[in-house]
Automatic annotation (TrEMBL), chain A:
Provenance organism: Halorubrum halodurans
Subcellular compartments: Cell membrane
Transmembrane segments: 20-48, 84-107, 119-140, 165-187, 226-249, 269-291
PROSITE patterns recorded: ABC_TM1
Membrane topology: Multi-pass membrane protein
Main location: membrane
Name by which UniProt lists this protein: Spermidine/putrescine ABC transporter permease
From TrEMBL, chain B:
Transmembrane regions listed in the UniProt entry: 37-61, 95-117, 129-153, 159-182, 203-225, 264-282
SUPFAM superfamilies: MetI-like
Superkingdom of the organism of origin: Archaea
Database matches in Pfam families: BPD_transp_1
Full protein name: Spermidine/putrescine ABC transporter permease
Domain ABC transmembrane type-1: 91-280
Family in the record: Belongs to the binding-protein-dependent transport system permease family. CysTW subfamily.
GO annotation, biological process: transmembrane transport
PANTHER family: PUTRESCINE TRANSPORT SYSTEM PERMEASE PROTEIN POTI
One Gene Ontology cellular component: plasma membrane
Length: 301, 289
């Protein structure tokens, strides 16, 4: 009897396993072949060479990395290094600005309800109303020496010639990225602030904490998780953005994605591109580790 | 909440009657913080609306490059959009790629979400991590790495490669809402249905799926939009296949002829904002973002 029972259990377990394989199999296959395997190839190709017929020649050399970092005028004097550090700074500035702008709005949203909540939410999600390329494009006619901002300023008696900061360049890129990524930061901050029990804030107030102390000791620590996740979801895409500097830097400088794309597009240097993109994978991995430590999958829906 | 706060703000500003005659520093800070938060929010709303609203305005202008000098209102830009065959074709192509990709992501992602949410198995922890990678991976890395993969296995860039790329890109947008929804799902509903004689299949189709379908629908919309708006992945793996974003990019970077750009952008803004307004009104969209 017990053997039959065992056999039955075994069949059930096997059935259960088969069911699981059918459910998870395609998804796992997709992730393995289209994410993990290509990333492994990327690492391998970064040490390989490309023949004149554009085929990958499997070999082991660090020449791609040397090309990234050693320039004619010395170590680290290359367009790649310049673009990489510039991209890091642009991404950091964008992240900082989205935090500063989104925090108060997210906090305000948690204290609103009903109609007011919906109206404010609708109003602040406006960059979501369109697609990324249009969001960036929408700043094109605002910046520039003949752009709307400079034209408007020139119409006032305060300004006599176009202001440099409103020309195409660094400010245009950072401002448009802040505009484009604002909703990501807002929504992650909002969902973590919303989770804070308002009773805790009232209790600290009753116990004599000042507004500033409440913000510093209660609200910020309790929303740290959302803050970190939001930073990751702004910083990583901002770091790898291609369209934004193409539209709004107008050749004044190049970001890392532009350097890699140009090399691949013009010279089919996928080995150089692979080596360079590994330096974008490092921040991605750090971001991944942070998100996995701070956020549960159930909370990310 | 809003009203009680308004009252609280006022009473804090004037000081609570009978307690002290003076206005405490904290109360002033509170009031300033409250008004400051509203003022800042209004400022941010202006900042957010300005670029898109001037695009809408430009789409009706004679002189479509800049607002000044004002030369009159016209529908010419819309005419140039609807006579721009290649742009319209690219828009249709992008919509088609997005639809197929989001469908593939849904078909693969929903069962994967169920497996992660409801089954214990080896490697589940790793899988939970792997699922969010397409979301975090910069587009350029996905583009370059898939270009290399397709090159190595001999798949030429084009429609299939783009759908493969976009379907894995869209996967987290399906899996995450499904896992989140199943985490708060009351399984007693399923037990009840089973006790009342429903078999496994009808429990799934009549109880479970209807409850999680809004999460799936929201995920589908996000996966669709992400595919539709993607530039860098389709740039690397799309080959010569046309896409709306490639067409728009070419218009802005290689030529100054952007007359069709503003009306196209305006139409996209109108469609998406209407959809979002409806979503905010009828459902708590924040549950699924």
């Amino acid at each position: 009897m017990s053997t039959i029972q065992d056999l039955g259990d075994a069949f059930e377990r096997r059935g259960e396993r088969a069911k699981l394989a059918i459910m998870a199999g395609p998804g796992v296959g997709w992730l393995l072949t289209l994410i993990l395997v290509p990333t492994a190839f990327l690492v391998m190709v970064s040490f390989a060479e490309v023949s004149s017929s554009y085929d990958v020649v499997w070999s082991f050399s660090v020449s791609n990395y040397r090309e990234l970092f050693v320039g004619e005028s010395g170590l680290f004097q290359t367009p790649f290094v310049d673009s990489f550090f510039l991209s890091l700074r642009i991404a950091a500035a964008t992240t900082f600005l989205t935090v500063v702008l989104a925090y108060p709005v997210a906090y305000l949203l948690t204290r609103l309800s009903g109609r007011r909540f919906k109206i404010v939410l609708f109003a602040v999600l406006v960059p979501f109303f369109t697609i990324f390329i249009v969001r960036i494009y929408s700043w094109l006619s605002l910046f520039g020496s003949q752009g709307l901002i400079n034209s408007a300023l020139l119409a006032t008696p305060l300004v006599s010639e176009p202001l440099g900061i409103f020309e195409y360049g660094l400010a245009a890129v950072v401002i448009s990225l802040t505009h484009a990524f604002f909703p990501y930061m807002l929504l992650t901050l909002y969902s973590s602030l919303e989770g804070i029990d308002y009773g805790v804030i009232e209790a600290s107030r009753d116990l004599g904490a000042t507004r500033i102390e409440i913000a510093k000791d209660v609200v910020v620590p309790l929303s740290a998780q959302g803050l970190i996740t939001g930073c990751v979801f702004v910083f990583v895409p901002a770091l790898g953005t291609f369209i934004t500097p193409q539209f709004l830097a107008r050749g004044k400088f190049t970001m890392i994605a532009e350097v890699l794309t140009a090399r691949i597009n013009e010279l089919y240097a996928i080995n150089y591109g692979a080596a360079g993109s590994l330096f974008l994978i490092i921040p991605t991995l750090i971001a991944f580790a942070i998100v996995m430590r701070t956020t549960s999958l159930e909370a990310m829906g | 909440m809003a009203d009680s706060e308004g009252h609280g703000r006022l009473s804090r500003l004037v000081g609570e009657p009978g307690l002290t005659g003076t206005v405490s520093v904290d109360r002033v800070v509170s009031a300033v913080a409250d008004y400051g938060m509203w003022a800042l929010t209004l400022g941010i709303i202006v900042f957010l609306w300005l670029p898109l609203s001037q695009i809408v305005a430009l789409s009706f202008m004679e002189n479509s490059a800049v607002l000044f000098p004002f030369e009159g209102v016209t529908l010419d830009n819309y005419v140039s959009l609807f006579t721009n065959e290649s742009l319209l074709l690219a828009a249709r192509q992008s919509a088609f790629v997005a639809t197929v990709s989001a469908l593939v992501a849904t078909l693969i992602g929903v069962p994967l979400g169920f497996a992660i949410a409801r089954h214990e198995f080896r490697g589940r922890g790793m899988l939970r991590g792997l699922v969010i990678v397409p979301l975090l991976m910069p587009g350029i890395i996905m583009g370059i790495s898939l270009l290399i993969l397709f090159r190595v296995v001999g798949l030429s860039p084009g429609f299939l490669g783009t759908v493969l790329a976009h379907s894995v890109y869209g996967l987290p947008f399906i899996v995450l809402p499904v896992v989140a929804r199943l985490a708060v799902f009351d399984r007693k509903l399923e037990e009840g249905a089973r006790d009342l004689g429903a078999d496994g299949r009808s429990v799934l189709t009549d109880v479970t799926l209807p409850i999680i379908s809004p999460a799936i629908a929201a995920g589908f919309v996000f996966a669709w939009l992400r595919s539709f708006e993607d530039f860098i992945r389709v740039f690397f793996v799309g080959g010569t296949m046309d896409a709306l974003t490639k067409e728009m990019y070419g218009m802005v970077v290689y030529s100054q002829g952007t007359a069709a750009m503003d009306p196209m952008a305006t139409i996209i803004v109108l469609v998406v904002s209407t959809a979002l307004a409806v979503a905010i009104n009828f459902r708590d969209i924040l549950e699924y973002v």
